[in-house]
Specification:
single chain, 238 residues, Fructose-1,6-Bisphosphatase, Chain A, domain 1, D-Maltodextrin-Binding Protein, domain 2, 2 domains, eight-stranded mixed beta sheet, five-stranded mixed beta sheet, 6 helices, 13 strands, magnesium, EC 3.1.3.25, Inositol_monoP_metal-BS
Length: 238
Amino acid sequence: MVRDELARARPDFGFLMEESGTVEGRDKRSRWIIDPLDGTTNFLHGLPHWAISIALEREGEIVAGVVYEPTHDEMFWAEKGQGAFLNHQRLRVSARRNLPDALVATGIPFKGHGDFQGFMAQLAAVMPEVSGIRRLGSAALDLAYTAAGRFDAYWETDLNPWDVAAGVLLVAEAGGFVTEIGGGRNPAAGQSVLAANPHLHLPLGTLLRNAMKPKAKPAPAASTPAASTPTAAGGSAG
């Protein structure tokens, strides 16, 4: 239904969707990036925390995005250079400056996919440093809530463009910083995303990156040469 409506409005645009992959359009510059149901597991279990995510990419750049949460009728939307909004209210990221005061969202690698051990290392590094961590099950809403200041920061790995494209623009237009965890500038590609207010982005990113560094192996203990047994000198009596 979402794709049909967008195709009717902009028949030349292409699509990138979870269900159907890439669909080329006549306009090679523009495509919609869509997740019609982000938070599928929540939806299937009757948890009212899921969303529809739609982003418009033009010449490789996200220029508009919408994350709609139907159960509370919350429409998060942004246009590049024009700010981010929740329904008709302007959004700003939180102003908290210190990690010990921060509420941080994340996602757990799904059904054994991704680097679970790496995630556990990151979680172990972040948990003692922040006020709390939440895992709610929708990357699009985690980013929207970060844009709205409900979360102070969010990180996750092993995502897809349709999970994050709209939300990345929301956070940026609400005054936040959004990068890949390693510092790369293409979080909308979905490999990893770190979103936070300007005060917390660097310290949280440092924690996450340090957690993924290989641990130095302890140097082997120096071996002690075995003590030699002295040989008694003897001679024949003359």
